Every structure is written in structure tokens, then in C-alpha cells.
Amino acid sequence: MRTGRPIFVSLCEWGDMHPALWADKFGKSWRTTFDINDSWERYGLWSRGQIRMKFIDPDMLEVGNGGMSNDKYIVHFSLWAASKALIIGCDVSSMTKETLAILGNEEVIAVNQGMM
């Protein structure tokens, strides 16, 4: 169907079938690992964040979901910006001023958009 505007398609099959070899024919980004969760623990942001920076889609942002401190959310947002993967994963209709400040950081967004 034609919409008259670009549509951003992000594929998810968790990297099991090597999406870097074929996914660009179907979408603009693709997941490469299992789902993230809103924590800094072993299976959360920090352990996989270091690995994920080289990948195209490390999953949605957890900023604002309540599982980490604002300082950790700032780091999370920065890592995802550097990996060109800013997809908001919180309820934007009820986010706090602090969450909005993190997600609206123009300097970090400029890094994501290749403007710096």
C-alpha cells in the first residue's frame, strides 16, 4: 500500500538467521540479539550494551520504564544513539520531565543523526 511518506521497517528475528546478510532487502534495521530488559544486570543493558554498539538494532530504548537510575538511562541513551538505534520504548504519554530531558538531548540526537 502506498502511504505517500517513508515508512521505517525494523525486522526482528533476534539474529538467529544472520540478518546482516539479507535483511537490508526488507527493512531499514534489524535485531541482532535477544530482547533487552530494563536493568543494568548481567542480562540487561550493561553486559549486552558493550557488545551491541557494533550492531544495527540493539532493541528499543528502556529509558523511562523505571528499572534504572537517570544516570544509567543517560548512558543507555548515549550507547543507543551511537549505534543509530533510537526507538523509544516507554509510554510517551506519561513520561517524566527527566525522561523527556534524556530523550530530547539535542547533542546526543545529533550524534545519532550523524550531525556531529
Mean pLDDT: 81
Question: What is the strand tally?
Answer: 2
Radius of gyration: 15 Å
Q: Total helix count? A: 4
Explain what the structure shows:
It contains four helices and two strands, in the order E-E-H-H-H-H. With about 120 residues, it is mainly alpha-helical. It has a two-stranded parallel sheet. It has a domain at about 40-110. It is about 30% helix and about 5% strand. The protein has helices spanning about 45-50, 70-80, 95-105, 105-110, and strands at about 10, 30. Helix 2 packs parallel to helix 3 (about 95-105).
Quick overview of this protein structure:
The chain has 116 residues and is mostly helical. The protein has helices at 45-52, 70-82, 97-103, 106-112, and strands at 10-11, 29-30.
Please tag this protein with its features.
116 residues, mainly alpha, 4 helices
SSE topology:
Layout: E1 10-11, E2 29-30, H1 45-52, H2 70-82, H3 97-103, H4 106-112
Parallel strand pairs: 1-2
Helix pairs in contact: 2-3, 2-4
